[in-house]
Design goal:
mainly beta; 37% strand; globular; Guanine nucleotide exchange factor; guanyl-nucleotide exchange factor activity; zinc ion binding
């Protein structure tokens, strides 16, 4: 499986979006390669959000712990939680629910702001995931 890397040019992302701004490849967990979002199921979105650095899922549900954070601004967004293939959700931490890989529990790979909406929007960070061609398009 070859991972596809996104490149940024003039404020937009190239190499991982189609002409409509949707994910051109499957979006996967960088640790276990489990598919998070299928090809063409999410929209590219620019939105600034601080996410805690990778930590154990059990650590993320305790709002009294202070974690170092990364300020991220490139996300895949979906409006339906059933669009995901393999994603887990933490309990609310203030107004955020963090998204994790459901198979290996790496996270957070994204978030949902429970104060935002309707509609509900779920965000998956490009920098916290990898992109791979679907099996049908992957060259052997």
């Amino acid at each position: 499986m070859a991972a596809i890397k996104a490149t940024q040019q003039n404020g937009s992302v190239h190499g991982v979006t189609n002409g409509e701004g949707r994910n051109l490849f499957d979006v996967c967990c960088p640790r276990c390669s489990s598919i998070v979002l299928k090809k063409c199921s999410a929209n590219f979105t620019i939105k600034q959000q601080s996410l805690p650095v990778y930590a154990k899922k059990s650590e993320l549900t305790n709002p009294t712990n202070e974690f170092p954070t990364d300020l991220l601004d490139q996300f895949w967004s979906v409006n339906d939680m059933y669009t995901f293939e393999n994603v887990g959700f933490t309990h609310d931490v203030n107004s955020l629910r963090y998204l994790t890989c459901a198979d290996c529990e790496l996270g957070p790979i994204g978030f949902q702001d429970t104060n935002e909406g309707p509609p509900k929007v779920y965000y998956v960070a490009l920098s916290r995931t990898t992109h791979k061609p679907s099996d049908s398009t992957e060259s052997q």
